[in-house]
């Protein structure tokens, strides 16, 4: 970093550019003049914002510890409204004769609060639900009271599932059974005849089209769900023989969960529309065209077809869907169907923020090398020191190669006993001073040698974060998914450290070491120096889809505290829901421990320690009190 750059005053605009909050925030997240992240959740009131550090202060004052999952109900409202209004605009623009009815796939986030909000706000638009299991169907039927909304049943269906869906049809629900496997039709027809209820049927097409991204195998010939063209024709023939072809009214396909390229979306629509037209020509009444999920979220703000982004806006997506359907169906003079999308990720991703504090840091030892070395310093270490002294901008690659060679030699000599522990430590200190010097000099090169491109990441700090990656961000660990991560305050200050985040688990995979960047992926995150006796808070954004329900009990961390906020038009807000996170006793009971039995067993162990004169009765009382308090405590790091 040169002197001119160092002397320049850091502004919130610099932080906005560094963390790209404008690009991925979709208008919901920004930085205030005082350097705090603010949330603007109301779709039609961009002048109403709330301050995240202020909310954190209120949460702490109410007795809740970090980590914390913060939900903004208004963002959920805004996303549902925005999706429907964008489709309405496209329908009007292209004079589309059908309508749009979204459905929310419950599996994306099954939390009761999400389903309640979606069915409440979505009722104005007849926004329905998608159930992929018996439990999800039961949940859907308890909240969906809009008979104009669609209830789409995907996944494997047993007799109980089918009977419940048939009775839902009898009660007036638009409950569609989507055929995922050829054999499902026989059971549906059998139960339909037995109960005397005609089903509403759909069929899932196994697309040949495949999309890029993490979920490319959702489409293509080897996808695990859906019927081939031949199997669809066989189903038509069976329905004709049973005089029930009029039940087939919906075509469904699913290209993938996060489709970054709009060209793939158009290609899938074109293929599926040909099948839709073929079904109509076969005599099926049809009327509903379900595109499944796939509308992506721009997690990194790059607006590209990179897997964590998308190269289209919501308005462009809606326009392309309408235009592509009309292009094919108008050729055959086929009535425009009701369009269904199962856009779960785009609906819920923005509404949740994971907040946590940093409780410790560590950094590479790059303190200056002592001026005088001990007389018995081995030659190998003196050679390493000579590399440091001779390093210039002209010989960076040579010095890098020499430093690696001497480092490896020093480590080997230590292993076989030829170096003492203090000599090994001195060698390490000199090596990291060389790496620091390389990092400082490489910034001035126009062309950086390949080996030195990421040299600065070797020096990054470790910030120990009070959360579990496995519990709260499973996609970050399992598939390397990128989420926006940034400080939520002090953004009017220049961040002076580069760091990776290590979570509170004892697992080496419990870390985040890949971050969003304008050019792709960064290996370190720019952060501020943690001040003594002052909390430093970070947020992980856009975590509303999947992360809340995919988490596990790795290291028995359990669910975090959860607070839901509703913002009012005057800029005030209410804590509308507070869910206390799991206690230690809770998570132990999930894995078949019985806390009462454990307490009894430990009490007996403590009593035995008294008999062995290891502790006093008073000490046993204190130990048992601590043990029982631990069972009632929060599994995460407590201040």
Radius of gyration: 30 Å
Largest sheet: 10 strands, mixed
Helix percent reads: 25-40%
Distance between the termini: 36 Å
Given the structure, what is the number of helices? 22
What fraction of the residues are assigned to beta strands by DSSP? Answer: 15-25%
**If you average the pLDDT, what whole number results?**
92
Low-confidence blocks of residues: 1-6
Structural category is alpha/beta
Shape: globular
How many β-strands, per DSSP?
25
What would you say about this model in short?
With 639 residues, this protein is of the alpha/beta class.
Q: Could you give the topology of this structure?
A:
Blueprint: H1 3-7, H2 12-19, H3 21-24, E1 29-31, E2 37-39, E3 50-51, H4 52-61, E4 68-72, H5 73-94, E5 103-105, H6 112-122, E6 128-131, H7 134-143, E7 150-153, H8 159-170, E8 174-179, H9 184-195, E9 200-204, H10 229-241, E10 248-252, E11 258-259, H11 262-281, E12 288-290, E13 294-295, H12 314-329, E14 338-340, H13 344-348, E15 352-362, H14 379-390, H15 396-415, H16 421-442, E16 461-465, H17 469-472, H18 474-478, E17 485-487, E18 497-502, E19 511-512, E20 515-517, E21 520-522, E22 525-527, E23 537-541, H19 547-550, E24 561-567, E25 573-579, H20 584-590, H21 595-611, H22 617-632
Parallel strand pairs: 4-24, 5-6, 6-7, 7-8, 8-9, 9-10, 10-12, 11-13, 12-14, 16-18
Antiparallel strand pairs: 1-2, 2-3, 4-15, 15-16, 15-23, 17-23, 18-19, 18-22, 20-21, 24-25
Helix pairs in contact: 5-6, 5-12, 7-8, 8-9, 11-12, 14-15, 14-16, 15-16, 21-22
